[in-house]
Every structure is written in structure tokens, then in C-alpha cells.
Amino acid sequence: MKDGLGIVREFFKVQREVFFSYRWDVVSYLIGLLIQVAVMGIFASLVTINANIEQYGTDSFLQFFLIGFIVHNIIFLPRGSLSKLLIGRSFPMLYASPAGMVAIFLGINAWNVVWSLMIMGLITAVFVLFYGLVIHINLGALLVILAGFTLTFALELFSAGFRAATKARQDPINWFLNLTSQLVSGLYFPPQVLPWWLQPISKIHPERYILEMARLTMGGGYSVSQIWPGFVNLALSTGVMLLVGIATFRWGVGKAMQLGTLGHV
Amino acid sequence: MIEAEHLTKYYPPPFRGFFDLGSLRDFLGKPREEIPALIDLSFRVMEGEIFGLLGPNGAGKTTLCKIANGLLEPSSGKLLIDGHDSFREHGKVASKMFTVFTGERDMWGIFQWRLSVHRNLKFIARLWKVPEGEIGERIEYALKLLNLWEKRDEWYQKLSAGMKQKVYIASALVVQPRYLILDEPTVFLDVITKSEIHDAILSLVRDFGTTVILTTHDLQEAEKLSDRVLLFNKRPIMEGKPEEISKKLRVPVDKKVVALVEGKFDCNWEGLVKCTFKNGYTHVVAYLKVEEVDEFVRVLSSKGALQFKVGDLSLEDVFLLVFGRFSRVEKF
Asked: Does B33 map to a domain?
């Protein structure tokens, strides 16, 4: 355990050093972020939408949009986390090292996760301070975010197994998830305003329900008991997807070990 | 001790996508045909020994390295490291081993391009759990031995290809493993860099008692470094002292000449010469003694040869000549 934590810490330090070695890139990124946050806030304040926005637990489109944006970015953090390790150039040496694979996986993603959470915290603070965003942090909100995060990780397991086995350069699962989440999950606008022929896709998209529950808990201050039936469905779907993801991942890695394709695409 | 017991690996055919139904069937079920990479390979490496695995390109050298590191499942047989199966019990042997994968750019992914040489080595040391108090001392020793001490604060990306490979070897010196596997460690490198790397390998064995498996297709390298050599090309061919193997592989020629001649060229030359006429050009491949080369080149020039390449024999050439594949392809 102590060894594992040491490995995670070492990866974290190395990646932080590499990240800040791109000084100009970091400065440009922060400037870009500042502009993006300002524009998003202004855009969200100006838009009015006649879709009975209160039913989502949010008072305004600003609150609807910004909570969706924050939650979407947090729950999508596991995307690519495993495939980038498994098919990366460094995998053969990392696997050959005495460090455990769990520690390596956590370590290789540690800096990215911490940095992204810091940025999301900063964005949230800007929205709260300058745009009047009201958010409730309660157990319900935390559980919904945790379930969404786990569900994305389960899909990532599935995707990484598939890519390890087939040597696929593209990631069709994440590609589909990303595209559809922007269009049909209710990230930018309520899914009810979608045309009838997109409604079925929206209804099977898990992010729709995650965002709905997140807005109710974070925006409307709903408790766990008030979102319980929906949350149970989400938790069950996450559990099933996790089992499928683990099975696919194990199959994919096993196949790659027969084919000798681990570590390069 | 490292011991290979009837190690065999057949690769399934490569997966060509979901729209190729034959390939999909092979991928999901039992493949109709498989590609042999290693067939019934057995050997034993004793403690503190440098064991050379000598084979031409495609002989199965990298396959063996992948099996040793638990990255590839053998079809049958096993590779035992201190009695542990390298594939199934990889976790039990990982701390005793260090592998320098083949010297291609892709394999340097472990090193961070925008960190200094020193910082990269420190990272490797921590990954291999080198005691914290010894890391600085070991890095200094490794970098000085490989003439990289002056470069310790340079970003890794600024180093030349040869220097990058030396950093890779330096990491083995920092880790000081009990077993070191070197997969063609000096391929593509110049003579001076090769020599520095050879000295570093010998120092590891001499000073720390490291046992080394060296895969190479360079006969001279195997001869210089190895205590024993196994010559193989998918299957084992012969095992023995380097000088014995070298003797068996002696051929009566020294140089290879490759040329392209416009029009038809009559291969009327005493010796190992092959001519192939295609698209209005004759491709000439000749194996010659040193003293024959100038005369041969003069004759080709007089016949209007467009390109020449004169070089030393590779192990592939020696294999071709010794095991008769050249003569099977072409009658002289």
C-alpha cells in the first residue's frame, strides 16, 4: 500500500513537472479558459428558453446550463484514462516494472484528474461569485456524480478492452458517447425540445438521467430520498455496465497477450 | 537461473477489421492458420553469465523478450525465472528483472522528453524501488560510465538517438537488476556508442553479478560479449561457445554488392551472383571476396550500372549462404 502510494506520488510529480515545462502552453490555456468562462456566463445569462426550466430544479437557464457543464466535465474524467495507458508507448516498460498496475494506472492519471478538478473548482467559483450561480452540495449530488463517474469508467473499461484486442486507433465508444452527450443528453438544452425522432436516443442515453438528477440535487437542493427511484436505476445500470466493462477488459487484455499487441497500436 | 522449456509461440493471423468475415472468425474463435514465431526453444542461462541469442530478423528475439516480461502468452512451454513462470507469475519476478527493449524510437516512451536525463533516471529508479539513499550515487556512476555526466541536466528530447539509447542502458545500471534482458541494444548505433554500451554491459556483469540475455543479429557483438550463444531462427539451430558458432558460420566471402543495371545484364561471373531482370532493369546481388569487389564494380560500371551499394555481410546474408536459401533461390 505504502509502495503503491509512493508510485502514485512519483507519477504525479513527474507529470506536473512535464505539464509546467510547457510554460507558454499553460499561460495560453489559462487565458483561453478565462475567455471561455466569461463568454459562457454571458451566453447563459442572455439566453431565455421556454421549456419550463423549473421542472429540472433550476431557476434559470444559467443555472441549468452551468450545472450541466460542471457535472459533464467531472463525470467524463475517466474517458481515455485506461486506453491511453494500455496502448501507449510506455506500456511494455511500465508493465515490466515491479510497480503494481493499479498504482501505475492511478499515477498516470493523477495529475490530469487533480488539475481538471482544480480547474472545475475555479470555474464553479467564478460562476458563483460573478454570475450568481447557486449550487447545493449535498449527499444526493455527490452520489449522482460518483455514479456518473463510475459509469463512465465502466464504459472506459469496455472501450479499452476493445481497443487492446482489436488495435483500433479510433475509440468508437467514446466517440459516440461524446457526440451524443453534447446533442441529446440535455447538456446545453432540455431534451424535451429535441425533435421526436431524436427523443428515443435521448431516452436511452445515461447522461440524460445523470444530468437531470444532478440539476435536481445541486440546483433544487433535492435530497437522496427525493431522487431515490431514479438513482436506484442509475446505480443498477452502473453496476451492470461495470460487470460488462470488467469482462470486456479482461477478454481484451487476454486477447492482446495472445496477439502480442499490448503497448502499441 | 533462467530456463526456457520447449518454448513455442504461434501468432494468430492479424485482425483485419469487422468487415472481413474470415478475419473476424479467426479473431473470435480458433484461427484456421497460425504464424510460427518460436518453435520448441529450450536453453538454460546460469548466474552471472551473458547468454547470446543470435538470430536473423524475424527469428523470434522480440517475441522471447515479450514472453520474459509477461506481455505475451506462449502457445506452449514456459520460461522460468528463478523457478517462476515469467508469464503467469510475472509479479514475482518483475523486481529482479530489467529489459531494454529493441532500440526503436517507440520503445523510449517511458522517458519524458521534457525532463532532464537525471530526473528521468530518478523516476526509473523509484519505479524499480531502488533505495532512496542510493539513487543519486547510482545515477552518477551510470552517467559517468556512459560519458553522459555532462548531459545530466539536458532535456531528454535534446539528446541524439545514440545518447537516448545510452540513457536507456544507464537506467539498467541504476536499477542494477539481477537479470537483464537486452533486445538488440546497439542496433542502428555507431561504433563508438556501441563500444560504450558494450563496456557498460560488461561492467554490470563484473561489478554486480548481473545475468544477461542478449538478443542480437550482430555476430561480432555476440562474439564479443557472450559466454555462450544459441543460434536460432524460430527453432534452435546450434548452441555453444561464441567462437564455435562463429566458425560454423564462416563463409568464403566478405562483402555484399547490390546494384541496379539498365537493360539486361549477363550474370557471367564466377561466384555467388544473382541477377533478376524486371521492368527494363537488372537487379544484381553478389557475395564476393574483398579482392574481387573492385573488379566486379568496374565491370558493372562499364555495363551502365545506375546504383551501387557495397557493404559487410549481415547475419541474414550469412544465414542465406550457410543454410542454402540463396542457392535454393538462384542457381549460379
From this structure: no
Query: Which residues of B fall below an 8 Å CB-CB distance to A?
Result: 11-12, 14-15, 27, 63, 66, 69-73, 87, 90-91, 94-95, 97-99, 101, 106-110, 112, 114-115, 119, 123, 126-129
Which residue in chain A is spatially nearest to B110 when comparing CA positions? A90
Q: Which of A111, A258, A262 to mutate to test the interface with B (most CBs of B within 10 A)?
A: A258
Residues B104 and B142 in one domain: yes
pLDDT single digits (tens) A214-227 = 999 998 899 999 99
B176 belongs to a structural domain: yes
ipTM of the complex: 0.85
Q: What is the pLDDT of residues B282-301, one digit of tens each?
A: 888 888 888 888 888 888 88
Beta-carbon separation of A93 and B66 below 8 A: no
* B240 lies in the same domain as B300: no
pLDDT score at B330: 40
Strand partners, B212: B50, B180
Q: Verify that B88 and B110 share a domain, yes or no.
A: yes
Considering only CB atoms, B115 lies closest to which of A14, A22, A89, namely A14
For residue A260, list chain B residues with Cβ-Cβ distance below 8 A: 11, 63, 66, 71-72
B119 has a pLDDT exceeding 80: yes
Task: Find out whether B153 and B118 touch, Cβ atoms under 8 Å.
Answer: yes
Q: Which pLDDT score, from 0 to 100, does residue B329 have?
A: 34
Q: Per-residue confidence at B327, pLDDT binned at 50, 70, 90? A: very low
Rounded to whole angstroms, how far apart are CA atoms B200 and B329? 42
Give B178-205 as a DSSP string: SEEEEESTTTT--HHHHHHHHHHHHHHH
**B241 and B265, same domain (yes or no):** no
Tell me whether residue B1 is in a domain: no
A229 class by beta-carbon count within 10 Å (0-12 exposed, 13-18 middle, 19+ buried): exposed
Cell 489559462 locates to A30
A111 neighbourhood in chain B, CB within 8 Å? none
Residue position matching grid coordinates 573492385: B294
Residue B332 has pLDDT above 60, yes or no: no
Chain A residues within 8 A of B87 when measuring between CB atoms: 257
**Number of domains, chain B:** 2
Range of the domain at B259: 255-329
Q: Which of B248, B274, B291 is the last residue of a domain?
A: B248
CATH number of the domain encompassing residue B112: 3.40.50.300
Asked whether residue B189 falls in the same domain as residue B236, the answer is yes
As a whole number, mean pLDDT of residues B261-275 equals 77
Distance CA B175, CA B177 (A): 6
Same domain, B128 and B166: yes
The answer, yes or no, to whether residue A119 has pLDDT greater than 90, is yes
Using CB atoms, which residue from B71, B73, B115 is nearest to A17? B115
